[in-house]
C-alpha cells in the first residue's frame, strides 16, 4: 500500500503523525499537574513559570542547529533516535521528586531534544511533491491539535500512587513517567526505520512512469525565494503563534475576572474552540486541492485580525458592566484567535521557496520561530491586564499585523508564482 499524496512509506508517515500527536499531548500532560508537583517540592509560582518556559526556550535554540546537522551529514535515523532517547531521559529526570531543579532540568533537556520535529518536516518535503505538501502539513498540524485535545482528557486518569525503591510516584510526577514511556516506545520504533524514509525523493530527476509521484521542484537557485520571502514566512509563523498564545492566556483571565464566568464556562470555551479548530482543519484539507496556500493563509490571517478586533473591543469597554451574556463573545474570540493554521501553510510555502537540500534547516528554523512566538507572548501577556495596557497591546498587535500584511502583499507574487518545471 502507498499513499497517493506522498512517497513516504505508509508506516513511516504514520510514525511521523504519531510523533506530532504526542507533541500536542505533551504540554497538556504536564501543565495540569505542574503546579501541584512544583509546590510539593517547596517552590513558588515564579519557579513554576520557569519550568513551563524552559521547554520552548530550549527548543528555539536547537531547531535550526539540528536541522543543519541533518542536512549536512544525513544520518536522519540516528538523529531521531538520539532525540527520542533524550526525550525519554528528560522526563525521567523531570519525575525525580528530590528537588524542583530536576523538573526544570528535565524540561530543558526535552526542549533541546525537540529538534527532531524540523528533521521530520524535512523528510516530508523530500518525499512529497509540492502540490500535496499543504495537505500533508495540515494533516500533521491536525494531529497536533488532536493530541492537545487528548492530553488533558487522558492525563486525569494516568496517575499513579506507588513507591519504587524510595522513588515516590504520585499525581505530580506521573505525567513525566507516562511521557518517558511514550518517548521510549517511539525510540524503539525509530530503531526500525530504514535509511530511506520513502520510495522516491522529489529531487530525483529520473522518469519513473505515470504510476509514481512526480514533482515540480527545480534545482535552479533562481526558482527559490529571496531572503525577504523566507523571513516573511518566519515572521508570520512567529506572529501567528504569538497571538494564538495570547488568546489562550487572556481567555481564562477575562472570563473569570472581567466577565465573571465560572470555571465550567472556561472549559466549555476551550472545548468549542478545539472543535472549531478540527472542523477548520478538515475544511483546509479539502480546500488545499483547489486553492493555493497563499489563499488559505490569507483566510488564516483574516481570522486573527478579526480576533484582534474583538480583543480591542474588550479593551475599550473595559469599565462597562459585563455579564455572562456578553462574556460569550469570548467564544468567538478564542475560536478565531487560538488556532494557528498559518504554521502548516507557512511550512508548505517555505518548502517551495527554499532548496530541498536545506529542508531540515529551514523547517527547524520555522519551529524555532514558533517557539519564540510562544516565549515572547507569555513574557509580555503576563504583565498586561489593565485597560490602558491592553489598549496599547492591541495597538502593537494591529501595527504588527499591518506590517505583516504589507510585507505579504509585497511578496505575494513570489509566494503565489508556480515553480519552473525542471
TrEMBL record:
GO cellular component, one term: membrane
Gene3D superfamilies: MFS general substrate transporter like domains (1.20.1250.20)
Main location per the UniProt record: membrane
The keyword Acetylation belongs to this UniProt entry's keyword annotation: no
UniProt keyword annotations, A-Z: Membrane, Transmembrane, Transmembrane helix
Subcellular location: Membrane
GO molecular function terms attached to this record: transmembrane transporter activity
Membrane topology: Multi-pass membrane protein
InterPro entries: MFS, MFS_dom, MFS_Domain-Containing_Protein, MFS_trans_sf
Pfam families, per the entry: MFS_1
Source taxon at top rank: Eukaryota
The name this protein goes by in its record: Major facilitator superfamily domain-containing 8-like
